[in-house]
Predict the 3D structure of the following.
Amino acid sequence: MSASAKLPPFDPADPLGVDDLLEPEDLAVRDTVRGWAADRVLPYVAEWYEKGELPVIRELARELGSIGALGMSLTGYGCAGASAVQYGLACLELEAADSGIRSLVSVQGSLAMYAIHRYGSEEQKTEWLPRMASGEVIGCFGLTEPDHGSDPAGMRTFAKRDGEDWVLSGRKMWITNGSVAGVAIVWARTEDGVRGFVVPTDRPGFSAPEIKHKWSLRASVTSELVLDDVRLPADAVLPEVTGLRGPLGCLSHARYGIVWGAMGAARSSFEAALDYARTREQFGRPIGGFQLTQAKLADMAVELHKGILLAHHLGRRMDAGRLRPEQVSFGKLNNVREAIEICRTARTILGANGISLEYPVMRHATNLESVLTYEGTVEMHQLVLGKALTGLDAFR
Ligand SMILES: Cc1cc2nc3c(=O)[nH]c(=O)nc-3n(C[C@H](O)[C@H](O)[C@H](O)COP(=O)(O)OP(=O)(O)OC[C@H]3O[C@@H](n4cnc5c(N)ncnc54)[C@H](O)[C@@H]3O)c2cc1C
């Protein structure tokens, strides 16, 4: 008997056997989220995308809450207390359905809830986190401004004291979940530096007009936040952080989810291309039988599963409390860049069908254009790594 007879069979869905690294509880989380996305997102997402709307976002948020996907890796206050690897697996499954759905979950859990959990007072945590974990309240996170994206240090939104109160003025731009949020975490300049504010969105002076005409993340709500002298009580400020390290800490957590999520969009596109290559015939044979198509599929599989391994490695480091922001930048830079290439290559394998919403690949590819830019652009992550490698800061 040859040695290979004892080996497990080659699995095209898991060619490196990465599933061996997962515990039964990890697989259970993955199955739950995959099953939810198959029922509640996949049958409808092409239509939402085509119409450029997410009409059932409130229902989806409650359902995501019921499966424990909101603030999943946070502990207490109704959160699931899952591991970083489990949270990553959930992000992958959600983004395999659509980046917009993963964005809803990332912003809710890793940005808005994380900010309150990490930097909030006990009262803020008790007031907001249980309702956000259940999906009853949707949160958003306002850092970017019309004139300040990659360089938030220049933000103009400011909060000034008026007696005990705070009065908040300014504008935020490109804010995921903005128009449907019940609470906004808004970062603003104060006399003491940048502070985070917990802003109930029903306050007078707050509005969140939706941004239309997007060609990417169309099944996602993106908004402006307009803060026109929004008066807040003294205890609206997040007490435990001052300075940009506040929002950057949240972003690092959200970027970690993207490292996994991007591989979901890539997996979905790869699977569509593999299936198509096996069945589509030209010149009298399946196009998957041509060497050029096989080279594409092989390269896609290599980058896809390298990316999943990388995500897993970073997840284990996060679970061990050893994940550095530069390592998150490494993962976000690589995995989003490779994911978009995989989607674009999948598009070529599907030929003309590749541009149709009947298949997911073009939707994923255009979604990833946003993912490439938000949570730090490719260039920002190159600069983070460049600085870590050389010790020289090239941001300015
Ligand atoms: C769909 C979507 C959802 C979003 N959701 C949110 C959200 O919920 N909350 C939020 O706060 N923000 C959100 N954003 C905003 C996002 O984080 C910003 O778009 C991003 O930080 C980039 O900022 P910018 O678009 O202003 O680009 P800019 O910062 O103006 O950059 C433009 C280009 O210049 C490059 N560049 C800038 N500086 C340098 C430099 N020093 N060296 C080399 N190149 C440089 C950039 O890499 C980029 O290629 C979202 C964006 C999108 C598209």
In short: Residues 107, 141-144, 149-150, 174-176, 217, 222, 370, 373-374, 377, 379-380, 395 surround flavin-adenine dinucleotide (CB under 6 Å). The longest helix spans residues 245-279.
